[in-house]
Amino acid sequence: MKVKVFDESHEKDLEKVINAFLSTTNSDIIDIKYQVSIGVCGEEQLYCFSAMVIYSEE
Hints:
Helix content is 24%, strand content 59%.
């Protein structure tokens, strides 16, 4: 079993990199964990979209 972690500042970017990874692997996907974090710096909101793909290589 292996994991691959992705971290992007926009949800569409996260979607793009995960889809690229999934299209290049022949592994069995066990699970995908998704998380959003939000931070505030002054009046600016900072978002972090992350996912962990758990997969099995044959």
